[in-house]
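Researcher: I've been going back and forth with a colleague about how Large ribosomal subunit protein bL27m might be arranged in three dimensions. Neither of us has a model we trust, so I'd like an independent prediction. The organism is Starmerella bacillaris, in case that matters for your notes. Sequence below.
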Amino acid sequence: MFDMLGLKIALRVKSPLYTTIRTATKRTSGTSASSSNSAGRRLGPKKSENEFVKPGQIIWRQRGTKFYPGENCGIGRDHTIFALEPGYVRFYRDPFHAKRKFIGVALKQEYRLPTPHFEPRRRRFGYTLITDDKSAKFEEDFLTRKETKETKSRKIEEEKLLNDLEIRLSNYKEFCKSVDLELNHEQACRLDSIYQYMQGGKSYTESAEIVNSILLNDLEIDLNAARIQSAEYQDAVNQLSKDIETVDSKVCFGNNLKLVLVTEVSEDAKMNAISELDKLTKDLEYTPPSVVSQINTIIRNCAAFSSKDAAHLKRKYVKFLKPVPITAENKKEFEEKSAKKEGEIKLVHIRDDFQRYFIPKGARLIFDL
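Model: Here is an independent structure prediction for Large ribosomal subunit protein bL27m. You can compare it with whatever you and your colleague have in mind.
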């Protein structure tokens, strides 16, 4: 206790050695021999039939589910039943769940529960406009803790997506500028839509057709909704066709999802890459790691290869070492290699028989039967 300027100030310091943890449920403690009993949890009804409740108010505390949450009610982790809407408490049974007892909240005093099974649930309408700015701001900002957490994470995710979109649009414009093509915002957004469809596994041609049809349909919807006139619609269609022809004649997305020149996805580019792979792997019994990385680079940098082509080429040009069966002729050779730690000899069970194999270092365990 300190006395400063005639005022007494008490400083409360938390002990670092003793802290308490509050939990939502009762924690067990003691031993099985302990005969002490805990205090009652004050279970039972907190609101009675036809009593008015506000959202969040507890109606019934229980252990287990003696009552189940009905219309406009929720249940907590400790089986507490609480109101989700303002209204009047109802205890009732549902003929579709004969063995269960329910607690619900009727929106008006004259409503009875349960609502007939095949009828829609009643919803609350007739909200009045809040004219007071301070009260309106409070209602707008009021969220539960769970909703606040979800809103924050959603906002962060949206900001990240917008930031990524701006980066992609900027990259499209810079690349097109390097090939003497000026992209406007609409053209860049069209390219990004094509990119999104290609990420889903579609080819460039399919993605472009889908995006073009969506853009045309949007214009037709605007025309039918009388947002634009017929002359404006025709001008917009002509401009869209012109933009598509201008952009697609110079650039496109390769199958590696990179924006490239149209000439880079031709058959000539594909054949040149295949000839490079042939030269690189000529007279090789197996492909060492350094050559594997070069093969992957050639396939990845060639925009003309589809994902299916890339997988086929990797299987064709990347050759791994395989286990070799040991015979009387090669036994001595492989024993020497095993002694030099170039591999190991293993007894392998194949087709109800045991066979000795020499497995070189880095070999795939694929056996020729």
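Researcher: What would you highlight for our discussion?
Model: I'd start with this: Residues 1-23 have pLDDT under 50 and may be disordered. After that, consider the following. DSSP finds nine helices and 15 strands in the chain.
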